[in-house]
Amino acid sequence: MASADTRSAEQDHFDLLPFIAIMMCLLGTLLLVTMSMAAINVGAGAGEGWVPAQDAGAKTPVLIEWDGRYALWHSDRGTQSIEEDFTQYVNTASGWIRILPIGTAMKVSGPRPSPFDPLIDYLDAHRKTHYALIAVRPSGFHNFRRFASRFENRQIDLGSEPVDQGKPVHLMLPPGTPQ
To answer: What pTM did the predictor assign?
Structure first.
């Protein structure tokens, strides 16, 4: 006597729909978490926190933001805004000459103090332990080399990093680090 096949058609396969539904819920949750974190980190009011390397002989950075006209000096006394006018003074055999940014020159009795003098003098006095770290905004790209030459002419170590135009920048130094 021949045996009859008693298996039904439902026993030959299984349904993947519940598994796919669980995977879609998991992917949706991961996408929601990723987009939420991106919105928090890139959204309005988000800033950048720069953490300098903590090597044994590393110098301490002094944060300066450059936007093409103003430099913001972040110090332990707060933030100071300094306007740069790019006026240069040259000492010649016949006396001092002031060269304006537009290229005209005129004879003067001597150089006038610059608003940048305190910053340059501070970095010059602390050249063994500090360096200038400049956050360059897109509006300051066109004259950054001219701005940086003020530091380079005094052999002050210099670092630079581009940063978005409106994004705040903070230097995150360990507690007790002198600025």
So the answer is: 0.65
